[in-house]
Amino acid sequence: MERITFQDIPQEMMGKLMDVEQYINKSLPDFKLLELMRLRVAQINGCAYCVDMHFKELRHLNETDLRLSSLSVWEETNYFSDKEIAVLKLTEALTTITNKPISNEAYSSLENHFDKTEISILTLAISQINTWTRLMKTFKITPGNYKVSH
Prior knowledge:
The protein has helices spanning about 10-25, 30-45, 50-60, 65-70, 80-95, 105-110, 115-140. By secondary structure, it is an all-alpha fold. The protein has one domain (about 20-140): AhpD-like, CATH 1.20.1290. The radius of gyration is 15 Å and the shape is globular.
């Protein structure tokens, strides 16, 4: 049972979170890459609502079953581009953050594909989906009901 429903979340809080989402989506227009990152964070954090949402978004974007089913083991496959791998490395480093700095390897592979502004926004995007997964897990938002709206 949901502890807090979407209707119970303060509107001002949701508005601010959605403003950040819009900024990220506008600033990094590769929505499929963002959704791959978001799904991977949801998998790592075990957020059923978020896995459902981002899986459906990727299916809507015509992502393949092979890549979707292999995302949790992406390092063992050859299905992802160098750019996607760079993002997935940073995604995992920031999501499973420790008391150590982000490795030079996780950061430097980004520089081949993104400028400093894009790396900054990508870091914000990873932080943002981590925030969403933590909210959804705390509130126990019911998974399975998400509908793609675009």
